Amino acid sequence: MSQAKVSYKPSEEVDFLIVGSGAAGGVLAKELSTNGFRVVVLEQGPYLTEVDFSHDELKVLGRHLLTNNPKFQPTTFRQTAQEKARVQSSVLYGRCVGGSSVHFTANFWRFHEIDFVERSKVGEIPGTGFVDWPIRYADLEPYYTKVEWEVGVSGLAGASPFDPPRSKPYPMPPLPVKGSGVIFERASRKLGYHPFPAPMAILSQPRPGRSACVNCGFCLGFGCEVGAKSTALSSVIRMAEKTGRCEIRPNSYAHKIAIDKTGRATGVVYFDAKKNEQLQRAKAVVVCANGAETPRLLLLSSCNQFPNGLANSSGLVGKYLMPNSGAIAYGVFDEPLNDYKGFAVSRIFHDFYEMDTQKLGIYGGGGLDARFDLTPIGFATGALPPGTPRWGKDFKKALNRNFTRTMQIFCHGSSLPLETNSFSLDSDVKDAWGLPALRMTYQDSPNDLKLMNWMKDRAMEILDAAGAKDKWHQPINSQQFAVHLLGTCRMGADQKSSVISPDHRTHDVPNLFLCDGSSLVTSGRGQPTMTIQALAYRAADRITALAKQGDLHG
Amino acid sequence: MVAAAQHAHQAAVSKQSFEALTPDQAREVAAIAARIIPTDELPGAAEAHVVYFIDRALKTFASDNLPLYQSGLVEVNRAAAEMFPGVKSFSAATPEQQDKILTELSAKQLPQTGSRRRNQPAAGSGFLQTIWYDTVCGFLVDPEGGGNRDFAGWKVIGRDPAHSFSPPFGYYDKDYPGWQPLPAETDKK
Fold first, then answer.
1. Substitution target from B173, B176, B180 for chain A, most A beta carbons within 10 A
2. Scanning A188, A357, A421, B187, which has the fewest C-beta atoms within 10 Å of its C-beta?
3. pLDDT single digits (tens) A52-79
4. How many CB atoms lie within 10 A of CB A394?
5. Domain count, chain A
6. Could you tell me if residue A282 is left (phi over 0), alpha (psi between -120 and 50 degrees) or otherwise beta?
């Protein structure tokens, strides 16, 4: 790119300051700058591009090229508030321009109508904070379509009988099927299910400046070297920069939202690459830092006017964390699948999207996908059948036989929102910048554990029906590690029971908006990114309308 | 053939210099790695030059682990001498003796096979766990990462080193006719 990129001085008051350049921040940057506003995006991590990406597992995964590094940003964990939290890596998120979309699997499912109104349908679930959304699927549908066409999503409309209505087909056909997809499709049809080509945010056809997927096989966990993965980086960030009004500022770690005497945001204080504090001034602030760092930033921004953290009059900032439930089954087959080639997932089904709560006593639901998402070291250290020798000729024989013959079935499910599951600050542990660490308090609800166990049994049946030579599953335990960071600043009409309005405006600070996984009211069925981006497109429309009405400051 | 390969490897070890390990330590590391992933008709840790990967790692990104290697190698040599009087070091033991030493030590130290939810390599804490993990890494990492010489490790697991692939990828998708909807009458919610 030869054109000069715009840059603003921190002292210059821009129209919007966005914290975070991921799935949501990227979309808002693109939309707001396209709508004529001057925008600065602060990103904690570096600005890497395709040439910086690598197939070196140790550099990318082991040394956290693309993600938060627990060495510099320790997190702590406890199951209940009664325990003392211990230092433990408990959260994974993207820490580079493009955020978690850079390394994600790229499963791109829309939420269904039920996700927005499930509370009304199934009734109250005692002990949970389960509520309906203030918006409906129909409100988001145009934005889902916009996401698919703008970032580039491969899929086949109408292929699943469980799909919600859509106004337009996918912009491009599904990716090719993999061996895991064929095995899964045949076996699950035998059992009466409805498998279909997975909608994926990976290009099956080239777009300007981006290649179609070349099936290199380093996908989940890695940055795409040919721009085929439809990350915020490969799509909306570049569109934002092309407007000439948006500056992406990497290595900028936001830690305080500045507030004036009238209770309005005036900008954001951040550490630059040299750990010097800077204040970027802005007329309005949009925080898109993910479901862990967004509540953390609000809590770090407590001040005399807002002693319990900014925008926290409800007391719900950081609460109702929903990481999605999950289970993984493994199967080994007689012949080589060579599933290491290509992206991770080619077939899924949604037959369990809505569980029969009456019959099974389980709330929520999920989807199953057929995949192989393991790169060589991850495979050798984590995916051989239980009981395989760890060294010597039998270890080597298992590596030799199984790498090309293994597939996984990943069960993705809902999480119930529990007020006790949360992110908060741990003042006993500091990060490398001297800020209180992120503390996760989490215990899966008995319902979610039941759901995971039930889905895991179905996955094992599919592997049986497929004639797997060997099969096993991971143990189902209460989760202590979150990747999907959802629900921690929930949207709602009532300011006592939510943090942001349906316009993504915080109830307490009129020119402060939040949009990312934290906005979600329910967890969906395990694939949140598509919905996070649809929300971001919608939020951009709402925020633009407010700005044009001169109503940004309440 | 195995002996010849080991001999050739040891010759290579003596020619190239090490950055973090002493030549004696490197010899022991190479010997342990060669039992974790032995050479047979397919290449093993020796052919993948795992010892050079480990040495380089201990000089750079894994330098925190150097003391663990130094003390761990002393332990392993001591165990060798205790189990087989007259044997001065792990590398001086026969392959059969080496396997017995590792069996003895690994019963205490190596983790059970299992699977993690996310594709995140995680190193262990004890010496044997660490050298086991490092050996697997040096055997299977993309050569850009400093191991897996001549794709020796990928030959074993059957990973084609190419950077792009076209379908069909394997046995099960080669005759796939394309996705077909189910007949309408069975296609009910």
1. B173
2. B187
3. 999 999 999 999 999 999 999 999 999 9
4. 11
5. 2
6. beta
Q: Which of A338, A476, A479 to mutate to test the interface with B (most CBs of B within 10 A)?
A: A338
A517 with A468, same domain: the answer is no
Full-model pTM: 0.95
Domain assignment present for residue B184? The answer is no
- Which residue has better confidence, A446 or B6? A446
**pLDDT value of position B113:** 46
Task: Say which amino acid occupies B105.
Answer: L
- pLDDT, tens digit, 9 for 90 and up, residues A337-380: 999 999 999 999 999 999 999 899 999 999 999 999 999 999 99
Q: Which residues of chain A make contact with B181, given a CB cutoff of 8 A?
A: 159
**Cβ-nearest to A392 among B99, B123, B133:** B99
Which chain A residues are within 8 Å of B166, Cβ to Cβ? 215
Contacting residues of A for B189, CB less than 8 Å apart: 161-162
Tens digits of residue pLDDT in A83-109: 999 999 999 999 999 999 999 999 999
**Structural domain span for residue A55:** 1-104+109-152+231-320+421-442+482-554
Non-local CB neighbours of B93 within 8 Å, separated by 6+ positions: B80, B84, B87, B101
Domain-located, residue A160: no
Tens of pLDDT, residues B142-187 = 999 999 999 999 999 999 999 999 999 999 999 999 999 988 655 4
Residues of B in contact with A221 (CB under 8 A): 119-120
Q: How many domains does chain B have?
A: 1
CA-nearest residue of chain A to B172?
A: A179
Residue A468's CATH number: 3.30.410
Task: Tell me the Cα Rg of chain A.
Answer: 22
Q: Tokens standing for A423?
A: 């992110």
CA A351 to chain centre: 23
Residue A19: CATH number of its domain = 3.50.50.60
In terms of CA atoms, which chain A residue is nearest residue B170?
A: A337
> Is A163 part of any domain?
no
Q: Show residues of chain B in contact with A197, CB under 8 Å.
A: 179
Write the CB contacts of A374 (distance below 8 Å, at least 6 apart in sequence): A340, A382, A383, A406, A408, B119
Which residues span the domain enclosing B39?
2-110+122-162
Task: Give the pLDDT confidence score for residue A199 in this predicted structure.
Answer: 98
B19 in any annotated domain: yes
ipTM: 0.95
Among A381, A385, A396, beta carbon nearest to B156:
A396
Does B83 score more than 80 pLDDT? yes
Kindly report the backbone phi and psi dihedral angles of residue B89, in degrees, each rounded to the nearest multiple of 5, phi listed first.
-155, 165
